[in-house]
Write a structure and sequence with these properties.
Layout (H helix, E strand, L loop, with lengths): L14 H25 L7 H26 L4
Keywords: Membrane, Transmembrane, Transmembrane helix
Organism: Eleusine coracana subsp. coracana
Pfam families: Ost5 (PF05251)
Length: 76
């Protein structure tokens, strides 16, 4: 029995598009986080909102960076 080749679940042609979209969304969440931190007072801040916004921004920026590297051919 011959082994099956491993293929990507995402078509290679989508890498640049996914990179731009995910990095853009990540930067928007990062901007939202910074604006929230700069405009809210210490007493009105919510730790849950801060952690959620930072985690979502981190996930989108992480996957966006991965697709940037894949689109540029660094890990191919």
């Amino acid at each position: 029995m011959a082994a099956k080749a491993i293929s990507s679940p995402v078509p290679v042609d989508w890498y640049p598009t996914l990179a731009v979209i995910m990095v853009s969304v990540g930067l928007m969440f990062t901007a939202t986080f910074f604006i929230y931190e700069a405009t809210s007072s210490r007493r009105s801040r919510s730790l849950a909102k801060e952690i959620t916004t930072a985690a979502v921004a981190s996930i989108f920026l992480g996957f966006g960076s991965l697709f940037v590297l894949l689109a540029s051919g660094v890990y191919v």
